[in-house]
Design goal:
The protein is mainly β. Helices cover 0% and strands 52% of the residues. Strand 5 (46-51) and strand 6 form a beta hairpin.
Length: 116
């Protein structure tokens, strides 16, 4: 059974940093596109960042560009989201997703709260 398990969320002050991890029980992790999404209170889920299977191509939403960095370690079957200069509006549940063609897997999410 495929599982994606996010970790690293928590409470942080504005301007602080967090690093999220998403560990996947996927034997073929290296062929999957990975993405981070978030859903804030009363908002729709939105795409935050993506990374290609080999890690050579990344994309970011305008709201996090320059502050967040997505990366992956295909030996550890893990993808990461380094979040710097956090703002209150970054408060959300963060989810990771693995995608290959029409196959998708989602994690259960990890809460990030940015507040003083």
């Amino acid at each position: 059974q495929v599982q994606l398990v996010e970790s690293g969320g928590g409470l942080v002050q504005p301007g602080g940093s967090l690093r999220l991890s998403c560990a996947a029980t996927l034997n073929t992790f290296r062929i999957y596109n990975m993405g981070w999404y978030r859903q804030g209170p009363g908002k729709q889920r939105e795409l935050v960042a993506t990374i290609s299977p080999g890690g050579g191509t990344t994309t970011y939403s305008d709201s996090v560009k320059g502050r967040f960095t997505i990366s992956r370690d295909n030996y550890k079957n893990t993808t990461y989201l380094q979040m710097n200069s956090l703002k209150p509006e970054d408060t959300a549940v963060y989810y990771c997703k693995a995608r290959f063609a029409t196959v998708e897997y989602w994690g259960q999410g990890t809460q990030v709260t940015v507040s003083s």
